[in-house]
Amino acid sequence: MKWVYVKSTATVDHYTLLKDDSPFLQLKYNHHTDTARVNYNEEKRAFMIQPNDEIKNRICLQNEYGFDLGYLAYDHLSEYEGLVQMEDKKYRFKAEPGISAKLLVYQESSIAPLVSYEISGNTLNNRLFEKSPLQAALLLVLCWCLYLPVKNKAAVLEL
């Protein structure tokens, strides 16, 4: 999978998640409001990316009504690893820095990665591991897709 930077306006960046070179999900991220608008599987959603004031290293994903759906927490010992939790599901993530930088997402108890992705088309590729609300949005929305009960079970098996 690959996040591709499509275009930007003064406040909004547009990204498309490609799976086997075909569009899988579209995300529009607003830097001023820290919101992400997502088009996925004929569904349109709006999410808010909010840092948690109580727990310093945690960034929350909230739905359009302000309810927490999950969070991302960076490990204290590594800036390249952490945990994403979507309700009762936990995922681990690990960044692999280098020329072809990738981010790997594992199910909590798994050894093999569930999903890996990279970002291309913008200077963001050089900042893949920067702790920012945009990076959190890209990772949290991907994990939200993994968590969703899908209409077509074959789509989940192909992820």
Helix content: 10-25%
Radius of gyration: 15 Å
Measured by DSSP, the beta-strand proportion falls in over 45%
Number of helices: 2
Number of domains: 1
Distance between the termini: 9 Å
**What can be said about the biggest beta sheet?**
11 strands, mixed, barrel
Low-confidence stretches: 150-154
What's the overall average pLDDT, rounded?
81
SS-based class? mainly beta
Instruction: State the order of secondary-structure elements, H for helix, E for strand.
Output: EEEEEEEEEEEHH
Strand arrangement within the widest β-sheet reads 1-2-3-4-5-6-7-8-9-10-11
Shape: globular
DSSP strand count: 11
Structure characterization notes:
The chain is mostly beta strands and 159 residues long. The chain has one domain (2-158). It is 13% helix and 48% strand. The chain contains two helices and eleven strands, in the order βββββββββββαα. It starts with a strand and ends with a helix.
